[in-house]
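Bumping with the actual sequence this time:
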Amino acid sequence: MNLYNDYIKEIEERKGQGLHPKPIDSADLLNEIITQIKDTNNANRTDCLNFFIYNTLPGTTPAAGAKAKFLKEIILNQEVVAEITPTFAFELLSHMKGGPSIEVLLDLALGNDEAVARQAADVLKTQVYLYDADMARIKEAFENGNVVAKDILESYAKAEFFTKLPEVAEEIKVVTYIAGEGDISTDLLSPGNQAHSRSDRELHGKCMITPQAQEEIKALQAQHPDKSVMLIAEKGTMGVGSSRMSGVNNVALWTGKQASPYVPFVNFAPIVGGTNGISPIFLTTVDVTGGIGIDLKNWVKKTDANGELVRDENGEPILEQVYSVATGTVLTINTKTKKLYNGDKELIDISRSFTPQKMEFIKAGGSYAIVFGKKLQTFAAKTLGIEAPLVYAPSKEIHIEGQGLTAVEKIFNKNAVGTLSKNVLHAGSDVRVTVNIVGSQDTTGLMTAQELESMAATVISPIVDAAYQSGCHTASVWDKKAQANIPKLMQFMNDFGLITARDPKGVYHAMTDVIHKVLNDITVDEWAIIIGGDSHTRMSKGVAFGADSGTVALALATGEASMPIPQSVKVTFKGNMPDYMDFRDVVHATQAQMLHQFGGENVFQGRIIEVHIGTLTADQAFTFTDWTAEMKAKASICISEDETLIESLEIAKGRIQIMIDKGMDNKNHVLQRLIDKANKRIAEIRSGEKPALRPDANAKYYAEVVVDLDQIAEPMIADPDVNNKDVSKRYTHDTIRPLSFYGGDKKVDLGFIGSCMVHKGDMKILAQMLKNIEKQQGKVEFKAPLVVAPPTYNIVDELKAEGDWEVLQKYSGFEFDDNAPKAVARTEYENMLYLERPGCNLCMGNQEKASKGDTVMATSTRLFQGRVVEDSAEKKGESLLSSTPVVVLSTILGRTPSIEEYKKAVEGINLTKFAPSHKLLVG
C-alpha cells in the first residue's frame, strides 16, 4: 500500500497548509483504497470509504474508471460492501458525469437482469454527457428491439434530463460584497503568479483577492446563511483582462453552491455584479457555471440642468450614485420580473441577465449541460424517427430586411448550424457555430484537461481544423512546478489530438512560442472562428474569441460554440502618420480618440471591433487586434486588401511548413491540411472567385469611429495612473497620454519588449535603434535593464538569417540557452540587455517579475496592479505601455525621453508604417 501511505503523508502536509485531502485522480491509488475497503478488518477502511465516496474525481480520470468498475461489481452483487448498497452505487454513478460511468450504466441497462436494467435506465435518463460511441450502443440496441433502449431514447427525445430539473427560484436573496473599486481584473480573483495551483481548486482558492477578503466573505455568510454573497466591482467592470475559468471557480468556491456532495471543491452558481457590467469573457465563464452576472448601473454620469455632462478639473465626467450596493446590503433578484430590489424598492431592470437561454443555463447548472442536452435530444428524436418536441427556448433569430451584413455577421452566418430561419441573421441572434481553430495555453491547459475529463471527452472533434497546446506562459523559467505540470499536460493534449509545443516523445525541439502568434499563423482562412484559452486570442485573420478553459474544452470536444452574434463598431482611418511614429501609437490613439468622440463612453466594450486596416499584414495588424482585449471588446476583425491577405497567408504557410519540418504534425496531417487550405484560399482570392472578406456597404454598426492620424503628433503611452485619487480610474487602459506629458524626466526602472504585442519588425527596430544610438553617442550604455522576449522561434531564426540577431547579441549581457533553461526566476536585474527565450515572460507575471515598486516601460498589454510589477511598501509599481522605440530609449536614458530626444533616436529607422487603404473595403 505504498501509494496509500504516500497519500496519507501528503494529507498531513496539506493539513499544515489548512487544506483538505487532495481529490484523487489516480486509478492505482484508488485501487489500493478499494482493496482496503474489501478487507472488513482493515484499520484504514473507514477512511478509505470516505475517500472512495467523497474524494474521487469524476469523468474520464483513471480514478473514475476504477470507481465505476467497483460500483458495477457491487450492483451485480459480485462484491458486497455494507456501506454501499446497490441503490447507493447507482446514486454515486449518477454523479460521475460520463465516461466510464456511462459505459457501466449502459452495460447494466442493456444487460439481462431486468430489475438492474430498469434502475440503470432511470439513472441514464438523467445524464447528458454521452458521446458518439455511447449513442451508437443505444441506437444499435434499439434497432435490435431492446425495450430499455427504446425507453431511454423516448426520455432523451423529451429531454427529461432537463425538464425534470427543479425550476429556477423566483426570488434569490443576495448580500453584497464590494470586491474592489474600479475595474476588477481576473488577476485579483486568480493571480497569474499562482497559475501552477489552478488545477488544485482548494489550494488555488486561497489566493482569491486577499485572506482578509475571504474572512469578510465568510463572516457575511455566517450572518446571512439564507443568502448568496454577490461579488461586486464598484464603479467598474467585473472580470476584465485574462480569460480565467479559475477566477470564476474561485468566486464559486467562496460564494457558490457545491455541485455534488460526492465531488469536493467543484462549486457552481456564483453571482457577480459590476457598475459597468461584466466583461464578455468573464460572463461566458459565469454562464459555464450556471451563475448570474448583473450590470448594476448604480453610478451614472452627472448632468446639469441642460443635460450636459458635469466634469471635474481633469475634464473627466463626474459620477453620481443611483443606489447603494455597499458591502452588507441585502438585495433581492427576481427572476420572474427580471428586476433587482432593495426590499420593496425596485432598483433596476436586469432582463439581460435572464434571457431564456441564460435561464436554461441556471436551471441546468451550467451551459455545458444545455449544449450536450440539445445534441442528445436531436440524436434520440432522429433515431426514433420523430420530430424533437420544443423543450429548449428557441434560438433568437433576427433578420432585418434590406440591411446588409457586417463582417462578423457574415462569418457567423457561414459557420452557423441548427438555425431555423432560411434568412441571413443579424446581430443579436443566438447562433451555434462550428469552430475552426482552438488554442489551449499552458497555465489554463491543466484545467482544460480537467474539464475534458469531467465531460468525458477522449478525442478532439473531427470538425475542428486544428488545435494547438502552447508552452509560452511557463517559458521563462523551467522550475519544479513547470517540470511537474507541463509534460503531463503535453502528453494529455497530444493524445487528445492537439499539436503540442512540447513533444511527449522528445523528438522535436520544445517550442515556447506565444500562443496567439501561433494561432495567428495557423489560421489560414479569414472566415474562420477561433476559440482560445486566453483573452488575447484576437487573430488578424478570422474572428477569435478569448475563452475560459471550460469553453476551450467544449470547443475541442464538440467543435462548436454558442453565442449571440455581437454588434460591431467600425473603425476606419484618415490622414497621414509622421515618419517618426510607430503603429503602436495608432493603436493607443484609437482608444483615446474613441473615448473623446463618445464623451468617455467605451463603445468598444462587449462588441466586435471591425478595423479596416487594409494595408498591414497579419503580423503587424495583430498589434491592433491584440490590444482590443484591453479595449474591452469581445473580439476584432481585420478587413484587408486582397493582396495584403495573400501576403499574410504566404507568411503563415511558411511558418506552418517549419512546424512540419520540425516534426510537429500528427498522424492526421493537420498542419499539412492547413497549408492545402491556405493554397485553396489564395487561389480563390487571385481568381476573383471569393475575394477577401468584406462587410456589405449597407451593414449597420453600433457606432463608427474614424481615427485621424494627423492628430497623432507624438508617441502615445497607456498609463495605469496609479496615484489617481479616484481609485476607479486606476489600471483601466483608458488613460492614454502623449510622451510630452512626462516632461522627459519620469524615472524608468526597467524596460520590456516582448510577448504577443511585438512582431519581427519590432525586433528589427530594436537592432536598428541600438546601431543608431551607438553611431550618435559612440557607445550603447543602459541606465535601466531591458528585457527582450521575442514572440516566436521563427522570428529568432529569421533575425539570425538577416543579421539582426547578431546585433542584439553584441549589446546583450544575457542570452537564453534552451539546453540550460533557467530553473529559478530572476529577482534582480542589471543595467543591460537580456535576450530571453520566446514566450510571455514579464507580461504573464507568473514567473519573471520586475522588482517591487518599479516603473516599467513595456510593449506588453498588461498594466494591471501586481501583474508585471508589484507594489513595494514605499512605492506603487506601474507598467506603462508604449511602442518599442520608446521602451528602448527609456532604458538607455533611465527615464522617459523628450520628443526631441525621441525623434533623434529614430532618425532614418524603418518604423512600422501604416497608411489607410484607398480602396473601398466593402462587399
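The C-alpha cells above came from a reply further down the thread. The mean pLDDT is 93.
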